Amino acid sequence: MKMNKVMALVAALTMVFSITACGSNNTPSKNAEPAPSTNATIEPGATSEEVANPELQPEEGATLTVWESKEERSFTDEMAKQFEEKYGVPVKVEEVQATDQVTKLTQDGPSGLAADIVMFPHDNLGRAAEAGLLLTNEALAKETIANNTPASIQGVTFNGELYGYPRAAETYALFYNKEILKEAPKSFDDVIEFSKTFTDKSKNRYGIMWEPGNLYFNYPFIATGGGYIFGDNGTNKEDIGINSDGALVGLQTYVKLKAALPIKSADITPDIKRSLFNAGDVAMDITGPWELAGYKKALGDKLGIAPIPTIDGKPAISLSGIKAWYVNSFTQYPNAAQLFAEFASTKEAQLLLNEKVGSIPTNNEALASDQIKSDPFVSGFAQQVINSQPMPTIPEMGNVWSPVNAAFPEIWDNGKDPKEAMDKAVQQIKDLNGGATK
């Protein structure tokens, strides 16, 4: 596989560190030009060390606007206050939902109406980067890569260029009822053995539930044995690995789990799963942090969260989403904007975000902190994040969901051979990719 420059830098720093908007621009300009991608100023007579590591300073008179979701605004309000105290740069926070920010940036960026710093899930990165809406993260790249997990760096990288400043990761994990299970099963083989004595279809009672027709939750059965969606860290649309030898090995475990959950995939919805788990009729549920508040309320101290069980002795690899800051390429204050993005994604910032909304850090030191390790709920997700892979950011990812989400029910419901089902899905994806690029 081709090693791009960001991944090469990740590899180098792994050995060294042992890693296991337009700024408050209230006067719109219809002719706004993107800011230069390298923004540190090198003074005449600077030493070689200073040239290699120029210190970023905010522009004189800089003011910033940041877009933030309503749910996480309290965190960014605090970051804005601290940033102004440190750098003397006023920061205005505006509420824009994370999933809406790229669309709004597309509309408002070139006209000078958008925020200087935006925040969105990494699967929107390809669209924003291809449209030229973002500055690359160059001046602070070494710090960003050294301080964060490799998976989060991969998530905020597109076409070999680092764009983002990771601040949180999201993946799914194993929720379990401690009244039924004293400890979480270590392997899916253990899940199957437990379910032999607990699952009773006539009583609508099951050892485990997840959405067996959904690639997102089934990715561990693809990736843990060596399969993948796209090759070259999710960037090569010509290399599709859902039908690779490694994927087919993991899918053997997927097929065996039908004994623990003997119902049709379409009969398992989030609402059904939630109701059964809350009532104690499902012992384990593979789902994400969005269920945490409701499950804590229903089960209280009986709720446990652990990493996904191992597959063939290997830690299960889940799909993850990376939330990150990005700098608007049309900002009038690129230095100040980059400084804020870095300032609001440090170890301390990520721990504050966790404190306020329960997020999972991407910062290595934050993940290893007592604050995270001592949280019985977040720690389970944090352990799983370490064994996660970010969703591919290339536009062709949109062509994957429908074919693969049709293949899994064929295997689960109808007993179709996994290789045959996945071979068909791969051909459908290739056909869609070909049509998309004509």
UniProtKB/TrEMBL annotation:
<dbReference type="GO" id="GO:0015144">
    <property type="term" value="F:carbohydrate transmembrane transporter activity"/>
</dbReference>
<dbReference type="Pfam" id="PF13416">
    <property type="entry name" value="SBP_bac_8"/>
</dbReference>
<protein>
    <recommendedName>
        <fullName>Maltodextrin-binding protein</fullName>
    </recommendedName>
</protein>
<keyword id="KW-1003">Cell membrane</keyword>
<dbReference type="GO" id="GO:1901982">
    <property type="term" value="F:maltose binding"/>
</dbReference>
<keyword id="KW-0762">Sugar transport</keyword>
<keyword id="KW-0449">Lipoprotein</keyword>
<dbReference type="GO" id="GO:0042956">
    <property type="term" value="P:maltodextrin transmembrane transport"/>
</dbReference>
<keyword id="KW-0732">Signal</keyword>
<keyword id="KW-0813">Transport</keyword>
<dbReference type="GO" id="GO:0015768">
    <property type="term" value="P:maltose transport"/>
</dbReference>
<dbReference type="GO" id="GO:0055052">
    <property type="term" value="C:ATP-binding cassette (ABC) transporter complex, substrate-binding subunit-containing"/>
</dbReference>
<dbReference type="InterPro" id="IPR006059">
    <property type="entry name" value="SBP"/>
</dbReference>
<keyword id="KW-0472">Membrane</keyword>
<comment type="similarity">
    <text>Belongs to the bacterial solute-binding protein 1 family.</text>
</comment>
<feature type="signal peptide">
    <location>
        <begin position="1"/>
        <end position="23"/>
    </location>
</feature>
<dbReference type="InterPro" id="IPR006060">
    <property type="entry name" value="Maltose/Cyclodextrin-bd"/>
</dbReference>
